[in-house]
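Appendix B. Chain record.
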Amino acid sequence: MATPTTPPKKVVLAYSGGLDTSIILKWLETEFGCEVVTFTADLGQGEELEPARQKALKMGIPEKNIFIEDLREDFVRDYVFPMFRANAVYEGVYLLGTSIARPLIAKRQIEIAEQVGADAVCHGATGKGNDQVRFELGYYALAPDIRVIAPWRDWDFKGRSDLLKFAEEQGIPVPADKRGEAPFSVDANLLHTSSEGKALEDPAEETPDFVYQRTVNPEDAPDQPEYITIQFEKGDPVAINNEEMSPATLLTALNEYGRKHGIGRLDLLENRFVGMKSRGIYETPGGTILLTAHRGIEQSTLDRGAAHLKDELMPKYAELIYNGFWWSPEREMLQAAIDHSQRYVTGEVRLKLYKGNTILVGRSSPYSLYSGKIVTFEDDRGAYDQKDAEGFIKLNALRLRLLAGRDKEAGRN
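Structure tokens predicted for this chain:
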């Protein structure tokens, strides 16, 4: 697609209400002379969003062009839970908290753009990170002809001093704590908190405890363990301690258990899709508990072949989400297979939470494949004939014996 030469007429901006997106808002108006529509999503980041509305109004955006939406239930039900059915972790440890939020934001931006007749969308992601890819792959997958504006790749500002100068020239309030270089940046939603940059850029240095915002230090967590049970239906959690909850309410409750017990901290040197390594400090308290619980109920209900195949597919699935391909046909194909595997993933898991640890201590299901009669060391009353194992072993050993015979024969020559 050729780069448009004419200015956009109306742009839907992903707007947080913070300094950077406020600067972007004014830059869009001054650079293109276009109409700006702001979209602010509540994904459980723990902030009041009404100030974003007031800031947009003060900057001249009419009320009809301000969209603020509570998407917490949509986020957990339609994005977080499907991802957890796959037990998805990137590079073995990262629970994809930032990655999984971007498809929903992109989807609503495109829907709003269609609703208001906008010809462009805009995000505030930098040109070094993954989010620019995630947002834009989402935009193009849902609206292939949409125009995308990425200010951090386009404008002429050379550094933060230029941004602050522009803000002052345009009458954008600059809080005192924004005048210096931020010690690190933070992104948050209901699933996790991500911190990176500046004070955290040396991977050899231990992360200061003040960086962690969602969890107590495990050393300061209660000295007594706490037991909880999580009930599942078809792969999704539906209740804690037999109390049924909506998806967002349930994850919020798990976050509180995790916060209290110092669960879910991660220091990761990860491989970004754009090619560089970066250090991220993540807190995913409820998600860490949920992953252990979901794998626990699958232990009881999934056949070995299905379970092992899921584990083989998972790294590819996780990589697709990390790289921004949520709306790709391959992710949807994998999701269909994963969801099919969850038909009987129903039951209850009991967990012990203690000083940063989530310990699986019990699981039960009406669809359990575990048979005490077969596995027992005691009299199995004919449920399993141990003599059958001899033929099984010999058949599996046949190729090994042939190989060993050949090697022995070759050694003689």
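Further analysis of this model is presented in Appendix C.
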